[in-house]
Amino acid sequence: MPAPAQRRIIFQHIDEPGYTNDLACYVKHGGYEIMKKAFQRPPAELVDEVKKSGLRGRGGAGFPCGVKWGLLDKKSGKPIYLVVNADESEPGTFKDRYIMHQDPHQLIEGIMITCFANNVKQAYIYIRGEFPHGARILEKAIAEARAANFCGPNVLGSSYGCEIYVHRGAGAYICGEETGLIESLEGKRPYPRIKPPYFPAVLGLYQCPTIVNNVETLCHVKHIAAMGGAEFAKIGTPNNTGTRILCVSGHVQKPGYYEFEVGKITMGELLNDVCGGPLPGRKFKAVIPGGSSAKVLKFGERFKGKRKVGAEMVDYDWAVEDVPMDFDCLGMIGTMGGSGGVIVMDDSVNMVEALANINAFYAHESCGQCTPCREGSLWMKKISSRMVHGAARPEDGQLLKSVADQIAGRTICAFGEACAWPTQSYVAKFGDEFKGYADAKKTAKPGGVTDLI
Amino acid sequence: MLQVTINGQPHKFVDGLTINEALRQIGVEIPTLCHDDRVDPYGSCRTCAVEVKGVGALVTACNTQLREGMEIQTHSPTVEGVRKTLFGLLAADYPAEAVAQFPDKQFHRYLKQYGVKAGGSRTAPAPDVPFMQDASHPYINVDMSQCVTCYRCVRICEEVQGQFVWKAWNRGDTTRILPVRGETMLDGGCVSCGACVDTCPSGALEDITVLARGVPTEWTKTICSYCGTGCEVNVGTRDGQITTIRPSDGPSNHGHTCVKGRYAFDYVYAEERITSPMIRRNGQWEDVSWDEVIKYISTKLAETIKQHGPDSIGVLSSARGTNEENFVAQKFARVVLGNNNIDCCARVCHSPTAAAMKMTLGTGAATNSLDEIELARTILVCGANPTDGHPVTGARIKQAARHGAKLIIVDPRVIELNEFATLHLQLHAGTNVVLFNAMGAAIVEEGLVDEEFVRTRLTEYEEYRKFIRDFSPEKVEKICGVPAAKIREAARIYATSKPSLSVHGLGMTEHIQGTEGIMALVNLALLTGNIGKPGTGINPLRGQNNVQGAPHMGCEPKLLAGYVPIEEARAQFESAWHVPLPTHKGLNMIDMLDAATKGKMKAMWAIGYDIVMTNPNTHETRRAMEQIDLVIVQDLFLNATAREFGDVFLPAASSFEKDGTFMNGERRIQRVRGAAKPQGLARSDWEIVCQVAKAMGKGEHFAYRSAEEIWNEVRSLWPEGQGISYARLDKEGGLQWPCFEENSPGTPILHVDHFTHGKTTALRRIEFVPPPQILSAEFPFLLTTGRNLYQYNAATQTSRTPNNGLHPTDYLQISPVDATRLGLADGETVRLRSTQGTAELPVQISDHVKPGEVYTTFHSVRVFLNQITTSQRDRYTQTPEYKVTAVNIAKLATPPVVV
User: Residue A165 and residue B323: Cα distance in Å, rounded?
Assistant: First the structure.
């Protein structure tokens, strides 16, 4: 059976010849028409549409967007803020960047509908520091939109006003964590806040109720407003509605970004049919399905269990290639859809070295606030780095795992899991490579290892 | 009540506790490496994690609220395993030598408890991102190789002191705690309060004295001997020597201290400390025995009385001494000498406050408590620089402002609190009455008075209303120098953003209209009903540890113990003491010197009081002192008075070396306990006075065997203090009078339903008396004075500690405009000249003073600033006007030699 075709909703105009990121082009393609119609409707109705759509956050956690909005404390009397999480920093993820670069007004339209629906008067786009170009494009697009009254003091000539500000990060992965991001936006170190009580929906930016949504998620809001929540929910699979962008990188013939209905394509279809399979003479060895922190999958392993399809429970018995690319199925097999960053490794990759790379990244990116993460990520880096620098011991794999096991679930924010999961899964699935690493290196060709970061 | 199961046992708790607080209540101990009660729970170390049934992840006990029905496991294998791993991670590179050297450090105890060995060494090579090592601070050693990144130093500096010195730099595995700017703590703006050292669980921050002298083996809880905040401290001693002082969780300081209380104690061991009685014969001081000196004094005093009458002798007691010592001193004057010539250092500070508040409200003391700073929505700071003068109170005000209270500063200068202030009323020095009257006028005019309060508690409102019209802000803005709009805004904030609390210092009292300025301020509180309620009131920041207590014990010529006029209590005291009390009017300190100048004062006994250094207009003081035949100085050091005029020197015990009580600025009696033996032959003040009394034949009135016996006599004579026994103070901590009975909790707020002297009080109509035109072509600058953070008054103590290195001299603050005009550069020395004399000191160019005004401190013996202050006095209490002197500034060709 051939792989299903892409369904480009968010990426409709990405890479389209002649499509430019200015307002005129956007309007020519029907831009801001959906927003005009949405502004004729009661805000609560728009919130309902999003709830009905079943849209799940595209940033990593896959939390239902409508539920998130529903948690907002609207009785506090304090202003409500929208914070757009454009800190796209999970390794292997490169979707929001293209939206902002090539179709910024789509994001602005999504922001404005979201703001209108939730009575937000100020929105902040927190864009990662490494995207200076994207920040400039957004600044320009906001200025254009403001001049045309698509945002600003009198949106569409009404008395409703909403300003959008761009705030650039300074290059820290942790700013993708929503409460760390909020701290950073407030001008502080991005130390994630303790939850409870600091849930953004109640005590967010400046201790006011705050929505934090990912760029892609907000773009979906525009399309939900256009087609209605019920219609949107028909796209994809139940509980995994809509489309999502998958960013494929690593050892495939055609890496890149692809937009599919969620759950309609399997891992095998994606990698073999869409991305052209492994490089010549190579075999797939492992794949990380949702950004570098997701647990790795090993080609050749099988996943068995029961799952709900419609109203009934059915058995499943999947190879990696058979797994549908949706939130629930990936969760079921012990990993996650995360940010949609699919990283493919073929048999040329040494898993110890791959993990050493990831561990170095997380030790560098830990914010340093809580002990298990700060000290644990440091020690995982030290051990895996020692291994690849010629001092591996057979028991190092287990040592790594014992550290990782004490980080996950012990930290203030989800970074603890993010930095522990790779180690836990690599050691669990490729334990032999860790055990035999020292010996394997002795027989390997000289030249040693290159610095990993 | 919440029903909670802990380790299988059911427990009940009140609502609102964290899990950790609940565990502590039932005595279950868990590691809490990053927790300190003084700062908000943080939850970063994760060592307090516990298991809660039904919750997937572990829960940190320090910052999780206890909820109904929780089932908590505090020591399950899982959590103990996590803790062991965490300590293992933290200890992997931690220097093992530190653990061995200081096994009682919190972190080191945890390592022992969990069987974790430190894996690092002090000789290990430094990591790529090095740890801070710094020994440049006079009190604090920094060795961040022992840092466990718990952020307690960062947070306590921010949340308690409000100084923001420490900051986490870098991230992840290279996170380092470093000063916010520069290389050292002092570069980072450190005020040396020592809070970070006190909270540090590992020894990354440590007191230099502890490193040098060892960990204390004994701790004594007592009260700080510096300002009137009354911080409770723990004095740590080893082999009888003080090695460190740590803050205690006292009712006035809640676990905080300042650089003086925390570190400036080594004066006790200063080389110049005199530890033997001395008599000056033929110009030479000679050590003598106590017997000899007591005999000498008693004979001389008896002769003086015989020849010149009892009024020819004066006694000055000290607001640094205990209540008991002050009580004994005034009793000595009245019973042994037979006069009322007894005064204390309150004369040169808050006598106007006490007088004004006694007249208007019935009690000459703070109406409310320091704990109410956090309750106030508006805080008015008048003529005080709390972050320097009363640092712990200053830090609390700063925190209150950070948390949203509106802060109004009334001061001719910019002070540190300005940074957090809503408004600064930068008035011309000496125009307090005008400014407060103008605020009163605005309150009346704009209908902001508390009508209910006016109706039920005040009289003469109509008269006040008519009187105050002439002070409407627009009419008087030129006189006080504050724009009318600002005066009105301040009045509106004070009257509407309630509760409003005011604190004030000597910028209010040391003026010709000192007492009246306070009454004008009291009027504002009365008009707006900001009295008798939580978070309100008039609260003098008392400058000395016991300056509230000393006059209260009767060291006041007109008053007896309990701050009662002599005639009101004569019968009571005479029957208690079985002697007639002298009937003639006593002399206060100023009167005594005036009398001396006229040759009528023949002997003076100065207990802990450096008259020459601290009185204004030194030349005049010297002329007076020269006339006195017998000058007895009782002190720790040969102070200026002793050096220049002393005939007898009596070595006194420091407050670390004796028992007693102090009364702080919020009317709180607190216990002073000896932590060390007196040095040499030094004795506590009361013992010395009692021995002289005995030698003069009045031994039966001074047969005290302990400070407590003296205190019990005070209680028997002072109904409001009756309920405050040593037993209670030891058990419950400090108590605020009025406290009539042993079961009374004391009184945090005065004047709730009625004033001390009745249901109502009258609004006073305070006329402004323009100060004499003192500025002239010859003396074109207005000099005002104040206290610096690191020094204390005459610097008798602080100049003999490493504090002196932190503030080695007085500086003349001068505005950039004036400095440019006079061609002065920072640090250049100038000669200040007034009508009275000259003083030489370096300048500090600062925009904290207005053009035309200059400011300095008065601590340095070398500068001797009081050589130029004048003899103007408060109209009611004769408190000298230190705050306003006209001066001339001249650049010196060659700088004087720094001693």
Answer: 63
Locate the DSSP E strands across B153-312: 166-169, 176-179, 205-207, 218-223, 232-238, 241-247, 278-281, 284-287
Residue B128 has pLDDT above 60, yes or no: yes
In tens, the pLDDT along A49-84 reads 999 999 999 998 899 999 999 999 999 999 999 999
CB contact under 8 A, A364 and B86: no
Question: What kind of fold does domain B2-91 have according to CATH?
Answer: Ubiquitin-like (UB roll) (3.10.20)
Q: How many CB pairs under 8 A join A and B?
A: 85
DSSP count for chain B of H helices, then E strands: 31, 38
**Domain final position from A346, A367, A389:** A346
Quote ipTM for the complex: 0.89
A194, A366, A372 ranked by CB distance to B63: nearest: A194
Closest Cβ–Cβ partner in B33, B46, B151 for A372: B46
The pLDDT, as a whole number, for residue B863 is 82
* Greater pLDDT, A452 or B28: B28
User: CB contact, 8 Å: B175 with chain A?
Assistant: yes
Q: What 3-state DSSP class applies to A142?
A: helix
What residues in B contact A189, CB-CB < 8 Å? 168
Facing residue for B171 by CB, picked from A194, A368, A410: A368
Closest residue in A to B49 (Cα–Cα): A410
Residue B349 pLDDT > 90, yes or no?
no
Flag whether pLDDT at A447 surpasses 60: no
> Could you name the CATH architecture of B781-891?
Beta Barrel (2.40)
The answer to whether residue A58 is domain-embedded is yes
The domain B278-349+554-736 having CATH identifier 3.30.70.1270: the answer here is no
pLDDT of residue A116: 97
Taking contacts as CB-CB distances below 8 angstroms, the residues of chain A near B60 are 194
Identify the residue among A189, A370, A402 best suited for mutation to test binding to B, counting B beta carbons within 10 A and taking the highest: A370
User: Do A370 and B43 count as a contact with CB atoms less than 8 A apart?
Assistant: yes
The answer to whether position A240 is within a domain reads: no
**Nearest one of B80, B77, B52, B54 to B66, comparing CA atoms:** B52
Instruction: Decide if pLDDT at B896 tops 80.
Output: no
| N residues, chain A | 453
Burial of A272 (0-12, 13-18, 19+ CB in 10 A): middle
Given the candidates 3.40.50.1820, 3.40.50.720, 3.40.228.10, 3.30.420.300, the CATH classification of the domain at B351-540 is 3.40.228.10
Task: Report yes or no: B144 at the A interface, CB cutoff 8 Å.
Answer: no
The pLDDT of residue B898: 52
The arithmetic mean of pLDDT across residues A13-32, rounded, is 96
CATH number for position A193: 3.40.50.11540
Across the interface, of A189, A368, A406, the residue whose CB is closest to B149 is A368
- Does B172 contact A377 at a Cβ distance shorter than 8 Å? yes
pLDDT-derived band at B894 (thresholds 50, 70, 90) equals low
Domain that includes residue A296, residue range:
246-346
* Cβ-defined contact of B173 to A372 (cutoff 8 Å): no
The nearest CA of chain B is from the CA of A403 a distance in Å of 8
Beta bridge partners of A319: A302
A449 domain residue, yes or no: no
Q: In this structure, is residue A5 part of a structural domain? A: no
Query: CB B89 to CB A369 under 8 A?
Result: no
- Least confidently predicted of A433-442, B84-93, B174-183, B469-478: A433-442
Nearest to B252 by CA among B585, B662, B837: B662
Q: What is the pLDDT of residues B287-315, one digit of tens each?
A: 999 999 999 999 999 999 999 999 999 99
How is chain A split among helix, strand and coil, in percent rounded to 5? 45, 15, 40
Last residue of a domain, one of A234, A255, A284: A234
